[in-house]
Design a protein that fits this description.
By secondary structure, the protein is of the alpha/beta class. The chain contains nine helices and nine strands. Helix 1 crosses helix 2 and helix 1 crosses helix 4.
C-alpha cells in the first residue's frame, strides 16, 4: 500500500456545525447570523421549536431566518466577517480529510449549515459532494435568495443513500460523523456512526463510536 493505511470505509460523510466547525459557545451558523443581524438568536430557537412541533416546514424555517437577515440589509461581506470572527475549523479537520482522501475515500458534507460556512472557513475543502442550505447574493453583495436543503434532519439519511447508490458503495462501507440530534437518521443509516463531541444523548446512544476531544484526527483510527 506504499505506506498508506488501507481504508475501512469507502464513503465518509460529515456534519459541519459542531463537527468540522466550532463556536466558543457551541452556536451554529444560524444562531451566529441571527444574533448578528437581529441582536438576539432567540428567533432561530423559537422557529426550531415551531418546526419540531410541525407548525412550520423546514423550508419555512430557512426562509424566515434568511428573510430576516435580508430585511436587515445583511451583505455577503458582513456575513463573512461574522463567520470569520466567531467560527473556526476544528483542530485537525484539514489533516483528517487529507488523510482520508489519500486513502482513496469519497468525502461528503451532509449538513444543515449554509454553503457560505465552507466557502469562508474551508474554501480549499476536498469534499466530492456538499448537501446543505445555500444562500445567494446580488452583485452588490446583498442577499438575493436562498435554497433550503431537502437533506437535513431525516433527509440526511436520504443524502447518504443517494451518494452511496451513485458511487456503488454499500451502506456498510459508509461512515457518518456528526454531533447533534439532526444527525441521528444518517447515523442509523451508515455502516459506522461516529458521534464526535456529541450534544445529543440520542445520537450518542445510536453511534457505534463516541469520541471527545479538541482534535478531529481522533476519528482516523476508526476509519
Amino acid at each position: 500500500m506504499n505506506g498508506v493505511t488501507p481504508r475501512r470505509y469507502d464513503l465518509v460523510c460529515f456534519d459541519v456545525d459542531g463537527t468540522l466547525v466550532e463556536h466558543a459557545e457551541d452556536k451554529v451558523i444560524w444562531q451566529v447570523l441571527t444574533r448578528r443581524f437581529l441582536g438576539d438568536d432567540a428567533p432561530n430557537e423559537n422557529r426550531y421549536l415551531a418546526y419540531k412541533a410541525g407548525r412550520i416546514s423546514y423550508a419555512d424555517w430557512v426562509a424566515l431566518d434568511v428573510g430576516d437577515w435580508q430585511r436587515c440589509g445583511a451583505t455577503r461581506e458582513q456575513i463573512v466577517a461574522s463567520l470569520s470572527a466567531e467560527l473556526r475549523l476544528v483542530d485537525g479537520a484539514r489533516e483528517t480529510l487529507a488523510i482520508l482522501k489519500q486513502r482513496g475515500a469519497k468525502l461528503a458534507v451532509i449538513s444543515g449549515t449554509l454553503d457560505i460556512a465552507l466557502d469562508t472557513l474551508f474554501p480549499d475543502h476536498p469534499f466530492d459532494d456538499v448537501f446543505c442550505n445555500r444562500i445567494e447574493f446580488a452583485a452588490d453583495g446583498a442577499i438575493s435568495g436562498w435554497q433550503a436543503t431537502a437533506y437535513d434532519m431525516d433527509g440526511k439519511a436520504d443524502a447518504l443513500r443517494l451518494i452511496a447508490a451513485r458511487e456503488n458503495v454499500s451502506l456498510d462501507r459508509c461512515a457518518f460523523v456528526g454531533d447533534h440530534l439532526n444527525d441521528l437518521a444518517a447515523a442509523r443509516a451508515a455502516g459506522l456512526a461516529i458521534a464526535f463531541n456529541p450534544k445529543s444523548p440520542e445520537l450518542e446512544a445510536a453511534a457505534q463510536v463516541v469520541l471527545r476531544g479538541p482534535d478531529l484526527r481522533v476519528i482516523l483510527e476508526h476509519l
